[in-house]
Amino acid sequence: MDILLIGSGGREHAICRGLRKSAQVGKIYCAPGNPGMAQIAECVTLPPGNDAVAEFAEKNGIGLVVVGPEAPLCEGVADAVRAKGIPVFGPSGAAARLEGSKDFSKAFMVKYGIPTAAYATFTDPEKAEAYIRSEYAAGRGVVVKADGLAAGKGVIVASSPEEALNGVRECFAGAFGKAGYRVVIEELLEGEEASILALTDGKTIVPLVSSQDHKRQLDGDRGPNTGGMGAYSPAPVVTPALMEEVRRSVLDNFLRGIREEKLDYRGIIYAGIMVTKNGPKVLEFNVRFGDPETQAVLTRFDGDLADTLLKTANCELEKADLIWSPEPAVCIVLASGGYPASVDKGHEISGIEAAERDGAIVYHAGTALKDGKLVNSGGRVLGVTARGSDLREAVRKAYEAVSKISWTGMQYRKDIARRAFNR
Ligand code: AMP
Ligand code: GLY
Fold first, then answer.
1. Nearest CA to ligand 2 atom 5
2. 275, 287, 259, 143: which is closest to 210 by C-alpha?
3. Which residue of 190, 213, 304, 379 has the fewest CB atoms within a 10 Å radius of its CB?
4. pLDDT tens across 28-61, in order?
5. Contact 232, 331 (CB under 8 A)
6. Ligand 1 centre from 6 Cα, in Å?
7. 381-411, pLDDT tens digit by residue?
8. What is the rounded distance in angstroms from the CA atom of residue 58 to the CA atom of residue 46?
């Protein structure tokens, strides 16, 4: 079976590597892919739009299309491919609104009894501002969220009423494009976060192993939010009892919801969870694998990934055999100088081979080839990932590998997974 994989980040490199290990897989095309993926697959450039993907898949006899990022899913790429009778791992455009519209997602959660922060949605800035004032007057903090996709931005966790009010003004001033003209204002939750990813084909829902992201730029969870500076799996905050509760209150209700709403959902559902003192609450749904959680999670997957994703695409998930290594995994993100505000690009990267010599895996994200040399070309550049007999060993191996890699301006957090040790 030949596969077409859409995307170009560290997440897609991890998926690509997993697919490559499957004996039944022939060619893997990555659109557009990255230099890391190019070592194990064939990178192709497709014109923009869903039709180009569907036509490429048809012309090349593709047996499975796997979609990495949310944007093409929200544009309905899965529908276009499915219309050609080709199996696709990824929800329909209608179902992808669970990530594409926070208002839609919150209404879905409330309707199906999925625990989440209290919220209200506004299209009128004055009403939004009045609501924020009344929330603070009642002693509650808020989070301001642009309704639509905002490339990981568009969420303002306010530390003061002024910050929340500014957030609303920014949204309506067009800081997040049309994504921000509708605003969700949510109760500020406190607790520890975890990521629960689950496969579903609309009939069955199967959680993957737990993980935890590190969203802030700097050690000790300081600095601005980023796309994610590192991840590890499993997350000890997700105890077996908590997982059971998430399964019951989040995943089972999610499955019931997509069935009742007749949403064609065959892919991954990512629940960002806040473990509050009143139990787990969903911060957000994403309709795709998390990045960098996937780099840690799939590094622990010892099953047949192509078979698993194909069975999900064909509504036969109950027949899939998910095999997990008990060994924890850690992914350290190496980012460009200036990230997340701006990105200092174009510097030659050295040391990847040395880093991989002792068994670490270096996933590419923001890399490019320039005059035959590998350079940094994006905010998050590499995801250095290692498995170990225990979490400490995995962390030690990952940082040992990181120490071999360098380029001008490279930055990374030194405390990935520390929260697990502090428990
Ligand atoms: P989201 O894209 O909705 O996950 O938001 C990004 C990040 O903002 C989350 O990972 C949390 O760290 C934070 N966040 C989102 N919603 C809330 C909330 N209701 N309370 C506290 N923090 C939140
Ligand atoms: N790691 C957060 C995300 O993928 O949205």
1. 290
2. 275
3. 190
4. 999 999 999 999 999 999 999 999 999 999 999 9
5. yes
6. 27
7. 999 999 999 999 999 999 999 999 999 999 9
8. 13
Q: For residue 11, give the ligand 2 atom closest to its CA.
A: 4
DSSP-derived secondary structure for 77-126: HHHHHHTTT--EES--HHHHHHHH-HHHHHHHHHHTT--B--EEEES-HH
Cβ(147) – ligand 1 distance below 6 Å: no
Q: Tokens in use for 45?
A: 């450039």
If you ran DSSP here, which 8-state letter would residue 318 be given?
A: G
Q: How confident is the model at residue 301 (pLDDT cuts 50, 70, 90)?
A: very high
Model pLDDT for residues 60-91, shown as the tens digit of each residue = 999 999 999 999 999 999 999 999 999 999 99
CA-CA-CA-CA dihedral for 291, 296, 302, 305, to nearest 10: 10
Establish whether residue 118 lines the binding site of ligand 1, counting it when its CB lies within 6 angstroms of any ligand atom.
no
Is the beta carbon of 283 within 6 A of some atom in ligand 1? Answer: yes
284 lines ligand 2 (CB under 6 A): no
Whole-angstrom Cα Rg for the chain: 21
User: What DSSP letter does each residue of 292-304 carry, written as one string?
Assistant: THHHHHHHTB-S-
Proximal ligand: closest to the CA of 117: 1
Using DSSP's 3-state secondary structure scheme, residue 151 falls into coil
Ligand 1 near 12 CB (within 6 A): no
Residue nearest to atom 3 of ligand 1 (CA): 284
Measure Cα distances from 380 to 94, 160, 298, 334, 366 in Å: 30, 30, 19, 6, 6
CA nearest to 258, candidates 205, 207, 206 = 205
pTM over 0.85: yes
